[in-house]
Structure formats: C-alpha cells, structure tokens
Amino acid sequence: MNYQVAVLVNTNIGLIGELLFDYNVMDKWQVSFDHYERVDGEHAQPGSLGKLVYVQQKQRIVMDEYIESINLPYNCVVIYHMDGVTNRCEHYFEEVLDGILWTMDVTFDFQIPASMSVEQFKATTYQSMMSLKNYIETMHPMH
Questions:
Q1: 139 by DSSP, 3-state: which?
Q2: What residue spans define the domains of the chain?
C-alpha cells in the first residue's frame, strides 16, 4: 500500500526534522507515547535502531524504528516495524512562500491483509502530521 500526505507548517526548515527525533518531547504531540529505547547506532543517524514505546489502555505497545537515511533539514527515511507490519516513511521538507511543505511518501507492507482501507491509513498519517504541526506552531511560533 502506497500513498502520499502533505501539510504546510509555519516554521523554519530545521525544526520539523529536529522534532521528529526529539524523543524527550514526543509525548507532547504523539498520543500514548511513553519513551524511546535505543538499541543500536547514534541518535538521528543512518543505521540507528530503537524502540518507540507507547502505552494504550494500560497495554505496552512497542514499535521498532530504523533510520534508513537522514539529510536534515531536507529529508529523511524512517522504517517502522510492529507485529508483521512494516511502514517506510520518506519525509521531505521544502521551503515555500508560506512556510515549510512537509510531504510524506508512505509504503506499508503487511504479512497479513490490512484491516483498514488506504483512506483510513492516510487519515491516521495526516492526523499524526497535524499533531506535530500544531505542536510546532503553538510551542515554537514564528515571529
């Protein structure tokens, strides 16, 4: 399954990519995020492997995060894996007249058929992007 989502963020080009990998504030914009556990590699570097830990309804959910490539502030590719689902996200950040155009090209691979439609996956991705956008525009307003 492949799709693309884009949002316009009123910020400087460096901040979005920086906050994507700032696990100390991730709980401020990602629902249920609890903490990050580094497994291998250096922070925000290609080859870095870690675990994103979420707590939902008292249940611990762990998702692997692998940084395939990183060229901040312009782009990065991150691969997530959990319970037979692999999600590859290509993030692109482009300076435009009204701010930063953040585009995400998303590819999902499933070991079993997906239980949601592509529209539902796109909506979830959009909501996550909007959460970070709202956090940035509220906590780091442009002057």
A1: helix
A2: 2-30+71-139
Cα 88 to Cα 13: distance, rounded to the nearest angstrom: 22
The pLDDT tens digits for 33-86 are 999 999 999 999 999 999 999 999 999 999 999 999 999 999 999 999 998 889
The C-alpha atoms of residue 14 and residue 52 are separated, in whole angstroms, by 22
Number of Cα atoms under 13 Å in the Cβ half of residue 127: 8
pLDDT at 142 exceeding the cut of 80: no
Work out the number of other CB atoms within 10 angstroms of the CB of residue 48: 19
Residue-level pLDDT at 95? 96
**CATH classification number, 2-30+71-139, choose in 3.90.550.10, 1.10.8.420, 3.30.530.20, 3.40.50.300:** 3.30.530.20
The whole-model pTM stands at: 0.92
Contact yes or no for 19/135 (Cβ under 8 A): yes
